[in-house]
Amino acid sequence: MTTEHPMTAAFRKAIVPEMPAELAKAQAAGEPTWDSKQFLDEFTPLGFMAPFVAVVRKADQVKGSLQFTHSPRVYFGWQAD
Fold first, then answer.
1. Residue 38: which domain range?
2. Residue 27 CB contacts under 8 Å (≥ 6 apart), including other chains
3. Whole-angstrom distance, CA of residue 49 vs CA of residue 30
4. 1, 23, 28, 67: least buried by Cβ within 10 Å?
5. Which pLDDT tens digit goes with each residue over 57-81?
6. What is the pLDDT of residue 2?
């Protein structure tokens, strides 16, 4: 088991409230978004560390990450590793 560095935890906690604005920017730019069902249809989650999730894209087995909002739960910002 690994322990998260306190600075990393503080950073993540600080950016969680910014996720709705980041989602709005992604939607305005026409970037894809996924609800929970669509997310599970397209990706295999490897680990969550809000507001990020490490995933494998099922179509081609590419590893990457997404961001997400809590309520409503929307995933966005796909980044391949």
1. 6-80
2. 33, 76
3. 25
4. 1
5. 999 999 999 999 999 999 999 999 9
6. 66
Cβ neighbourhood burial of 12 (10 Å; 0-12, 13-18, 19+): middle
Q: Is there a domain that residue 68 lies in?
A: yes
* Tokens read off for 48: 């969550």
pTM for this entry? 0.89
Please give the share of the chain, as a percent, with pLDDT higher than 90. 80
Number of compact structural domains in the chain: 1
- Can you tell me whether residue 20 is helix, strand or coil? helix
Kindly tell me if the per-residue pLDDT of 1 is higher than 60.
no
In-domain check, residue 61? yes
Q: Does 1 map to a domain?
A: no
Q: Within a domain: residue 19?
A: yes
Mean pLDDT of the 28-38 span: 98
